[in-house]
Write a structure and sequence with these properties.
- The complex is a heterodimer.
- Chain A is built from 16 helices and no strands.
- Chain A is mostly helical.
- The two termini of chain A are 29 Å apart.
- By secondary structure, chain B is an alpha+beta fold.
- Chain B contains twelve helices and ten strands.
- In chain B, the strands form three sheets. Chain B has a five-stranded mixed beta sheet, with no helix packed on it. A three-stranded mixed beta sheet of chain B has the order 4-10-9. A two-stranded antiparallel sheet of chain B has the order 6-7.
- In chain B, helix 3 packs antiparallel against helix 4, helix 7 crosses helix 11 and helix 11 crosses helix 12.
- The longest helix of chain B is centred in the first third of the chain and has 34 residues.
- The chains are: A mainly alpha, B alpha+beta.
- At the A-B interface, helix 4, helix 10, helix 11, helix 12 and helix 13 of A face helix 2, helix 3, helix 4, helix 5 and strand 7 of B.
Chain lengths: 542, 413
């Protein structure tokens, strides 16, 4: 991010900022209070964790390439699946969206910075020791936590000391998320340019506002669940330990009361990104802006009353199963509305297909497949067959990889000219897209068949009938991993190092919003005085 | 459900010819892809490809649910097709529109952008119509949920207990009452897994157990699940059942197998390191065969009735102990008694060599290290005495010490 790294160069002749320009050297990052710097830190951190989690996934796929144990023992295998999940959810996807929020929310609402700039610094730097503690738990006696990312009791009671460091790491990451969310809510509610009413806010800002409320509501629930696990492990309580009258199923209820909204925490900002990009490249306003906002809010509200669809197999009463089945199926309605709105936005547009649009269309197409498998899984009788099989693995990778990750790639291609001041290579972006899309489907589509045929998830070894599709999935996974290495070295690094064409202020002809009203790269300080906006709150009045 | 349902599922059965053709083509394609795509090491043996479909278990390149052996499973399969078809139709419709738009409404074709950006009528329509579709989907699903949950009036009740890592079956009520045994994965398969399963093709790989669960055909079997340590899940796909086995709690499910034969399932809830190695094998027998089996099993139970006061000779006890060790201890502590990683060695271990047996007995009864070494109290006094004696007199441990069942009994609480 050349210009971002040396902001003074981009402001030649702009002398008045001497006393509040960017500090230099390591101080600039360690003491960062600028939302753009912190956004960059978040994104780099998230990408590092993505690669780390990806390497763990590839060891898993190498082991599963064929039956029999070749590379890891079953103990290590369970550690790998657990850590892959934890790192991807808490280390990669969530921080990456916070990175997007830091960079884009002040720019999109015409605010000078985030509301609590120092707390912003703290929420980022808390994640480093937490991530280090989580990742280094592999080296503790007994290895990393191996109870699955869901950390079900009472299996957690059998784990070694790494379970405690894992719990502590999650506590810290949770605290960081809550601080980040408070910051985002306060920024959005208090620091918008005076002419930007709530219903004129960009969709990305709306989705993050709702996401931040979800985070504040559920992160403490997770903290509660894992704290009870901790006291069960060390202080003689028996919340979840049946040996003392505890209830292991209660753990699952508490966990999933966090866990299901968490799913939407990881997808709502993605909806926001897609809702910004599709109109820009269809050269047409977003269809049904108001219904998009309402759909997002309804998804968020419904997400609190569906948690037990993760638990059909625990043996709920009939009425319980029916309630959670109906509530879950209901979520497909607002989600459908979103997909219809995106398609209607494209309809009769004047479309071009640069990398951000390709990833957005890829998102809509593949995410919807994940949505349909979700609808199928929501039916308790079918779920009886599919619960805890590879079908579920396929389903949540369709919504989290093809959903969240694709949306983040789309967002990167869309906004990186603004961040760095340089255009990425369009050819390389297209290569990255097709490579990613195809290898993603080669990896995860066969998992539907494996799940239908009954292959359980979290298995280090499997009956030989499952070999073929596992081989295919492993080949796909390595290809997919390689595509992301290509992305980093051939797309991200060049623009960060300032190679490529200089980006114009508005690189996409129909991109709307205040972020395109400032030069590329965005100066270190923007909107130091609140801008005066036009009626649509997308342009600054001179 | 009614005849309409069954005839629909028959229609789907007719499609299996098409599917099997498709399978052959896919298999070729996948082989080529995989071979071309990855370094094919020596362990990528041709033999691994020779595995056959397993009746009552998974098939090679299976694309859909396992063939149903109960009405519930047939209903699930019907529901799955029902959902799949509706979803596919919606998918094709929505993305038909999207791809039409992508093809026609592009700038390169000179298509001008329209300016509409909302329509209350359209938006209400595409909220209400999906809502109605969802209700239509929920109706048959509700019937199936209610049917699957009705565990009343069972002919035979069996308790399935999940242990780390095996299943215990107790015939509680009905023909065969009192029969009780443990069901463990074949050691041969477990060792094969460790060695990388090189160059073998076994149709029931990781599904072969020493003692299958035996049930009669066409009888309502109620399975009560519970667990002794962590959560497991009892699942047999072709019966359409999956029920968590939760320590401290009992849950139930049921099935009525419509044909005899062998049916397979696996533990479906992460339960620790040997999670992949605690299969379920259900043998469905005709009523007559089952009656014979049950009588025989009950007789054996009586003969096995543990007499903890019996005093054993070292040789007999060691022979018995070797079997107990192979079935219960070998997976972790290894054939050489050296353990691995976090698993402690028995060979040369002070607690094993100690002339005071009480410590070792206590560990076997109560477990150790938060259950990393589980409790084995479900084994009989004789089995425990035998396996302890075996560890005391095997490998380099030649103590000559002998633990009698009465010693174990004395320490049981």
């Amino acid at each position: 991010m050349s210009a971002v790294l040396h902001p003074h160069e981009s402001m030649v002749g702009d002398h008045h900022d001497d006393h509040h320009g960017a500090p230099h050297g390591w101080r600039r990052w360690v003491f960062a209070t600028n939302h753009k710097d912190i956004g960059t830190l978040y994104l780099l951190f998230a990408f590092t964790m993505l690669i780390l989690g990806g390497v763990l996934a590839l060891v898993i796929r190498a082991e599963l390439f064929q039956p029999g144990l070749q590379f890891v023992n079953p103990e290590l295998f369970n550690q790998l699946t657990t850590m892959h999940g934890l790192i991807m959810v808490f280390g990669a996807i969530m921080p990456a969206f916070v990175g997007f929020a830091n960079w884009m929310i002040p720019l999109q609402i015409g605010a000078a910075d985030m509301a609590f700039a120092r707390m912003n610094n703290f929420s980022f730097w808390l994640m480093i020791p937490a991530a280090a503690m989580l990742a280094s738990s592999f080296f503790l006696p007994g290895g990393a936590p191996a109870a699955g990312w869901t950390l079900y009791a009472p299996l957690t009671l059998q784990m070694g000391p790494s379970m405690d460091s894992g719990i502590f790491a999650l506590h810290i990451l949770g605290a960081s998320s809550i601080m980040g969310s408070i910051n985002i809510i306060v920024t959005i509610l208090n620091m918008r340019a005076p002419d930007m009413s709530l219903m004129k806010m960009p969709m990305f800002v709306w989705t993050w506002l709702i996401t931040a409320y979800l985070l504040i509501a559920v992160m403490p629930v997770l903290a509660g669940a894992i704290t009870m696990t901790l006291t069960d492990r060390h202080f003689g309580t028996t919340f979840f330990n049946p040996a003392g009258g505890g209830d292991p199923v209660m753990y699952q209820h508490i966990f999933w009361f966090f866990g299901h909204p968490e799913v939407y925490i990881m997808i709502l900002p993605a909806f926001g990104i897609i809702s910004q990009i599709v109109p820009a490249f269809a050269r047409k306003r977003l269809f049904g802006y108001a219904s998009m906002v309402y759909a997002t809010a309804s998804i968020a509200i419904l997400s609190f009353i569906v948690w037990a669809h993760h638990m059909y197999a625990t043996g709920m009463p009939v009425t319980g199963q029916l309630f959670f089945m109906y509530a879950t199926m209901l979520i497909s309605v607002p989600t459908g509305v979103k997909v219809f709105n995106w398609v209607a936005t494209m309809w009769k547009g004047s479309m071009t297909f640069e990398s951000p649009m390709l990833f957005s269309i890829g998102f809509i197409f593949v995410f919807t497949m994940g949505g349909f498998t979700g609808l199928i899984l929501s039916m308790a009788p079918i779920d009886t067959q599919l619960q805890d099989t590879y079908y579920v693995v396929a389903h949540f990778h369709y919504v989290l990889v093809a959903g969240s990750l694709f949306a983040m790639f789309a967002g990167f291609y869309y906004w990186s000219p603004k961040w760095t001041g340089f255009m990425y290579s369009e050819t390389r972006g297209k290569i990255h897209f097709w490579w990613t899309l195809i290898s993603f489907n080669v990896t995860f589509f066969p998992m539907h068949f494996l799940g239908l045929a009954g292959m359980p998830r979290r298995y280090a070894d499997y009956p030989m009938q499952f070999t073929d599709f596992n081989m295919l999935a492993s080949v796909g996974a390595f290809t997919f991993g390689l595509a992301q290495v290509y992305f980093f070295f051939f797309v991200v690094l060049p623009v960060m190092m300032g190679k490529g064409e200089h980006a114009p202020q508005r690189p996409w002809d129909h991109a709307e919003g205040l972020e395109w009203e400032v030069p590329s790269p965005a100066p270190f300080h923007t909107f130091e005085t609140p801008p005066k906006l036009d009626a649509t709150a997308t342009k600054i009045l001179a | 459900m009614g005849g309409k349902w069954r005839s629909t599922s028959e229609w789907f059965a007719e499609q299996s010819f098409f599917l099997s053709n498709l399978k052959m083509k896919m298999k070729n394609l996948i082989q080529k892809l995989s071979m071309a795509g990855l370094v094919s090491g020596a362990w990528l043996s041709q033999a691994a490809w020779a595995v056959n479909d397993l009746a009552g278990g998974p098939a090679v390149l299976q694309l859909n649910l396992q063939p149903a052996a109960t009405k519930i499973a047939a209903e699930q399969a019907w529901l799955h097709w029902f959902m799949l078809i509706i979803c596919t139709v919606i998918f094709l419709a929505v993305f038909g529109v999207m791809f039409y738009s992508i093809l026609k409404h592009r700038k390169s074709l000179g298509h001008p952008a329209a300016s509409f950006h909302e329509s209350v009528k359209v938006e209400i329509a595409w909220t209400v119509i999906p809502f109605i579709i969802v209700i239509l989907m929920a109706l048959p699903a509700t019937k199936a949920v209610v049917a699957a949950k009705d565990t009343s009036n069972a002919d035979l009740t069996i308790k399935a207990t999940g242990y780390q890592w095996k299943w215990g079956y107790d015939y509680l009520k009905g023909e065969g009452e009192g029969v009780s045994f443990l069901s463990t994965l074949s050691n041969e398969h477990r060792e094969l897994s460790n060695s990388g399963a090189v160059g073998v093709s076994i149709d029931n790989y990781l599904l072969k157990v020493d003692n299958p669960l035996v049930v009669p055909v066409d009888k309502k079997i109620r399975i009560i699940t519970t667990a002794s340590d962590v959560i497991h899940a009892f699942s047999v796909p072709s019966f359409g059942i999956k029920q968590d086995a939760i320590p401290g709690f009992v849950r139930d499910t049921w099935f009525r197998a419509e044909r005899t034969g062998d049916f397979y399932g696996q533990c479906q809830e992460l339960c620790g390191k040997e999670h992949a190695y605690m299969p379920i094998h259900v043998k469905v027998l005709s009523a007559e065969d089952y009656a014979v089996w049950a009588k025989d099993a009950q007789a054996k139970m009586a003969a096995l009735q543990d007499d903890p006061s019996k005093v054993w000779a070292l040789g007999d006890l060691l022979k018995k102990g070797e079997k107990v060790y192979a079935a219960n201890c070998l997976a972790c502590h290894q054939a050489n008694g050296k353990g691995a990683g976090a698993i402690k060695p028995l060979d040369g271990a002070a607690v094993v060599l100690n002339a005071d047996n009480s410590k070792q007995i206590a560990i076997l009864l109560a477990g150790q290290n938060n259950g990393a070494m589980p409790s084995w109290k479900q084994l009989s006094d004789t089995d425990l005495a035998a396996v302890i004696s075996f560890t005391k007199n095997n490998w380099s441990n030649q103590t000559g010490q002998l633990v009698q069942p009465s010693d174990v009994l004395a320490l049981r609480k």
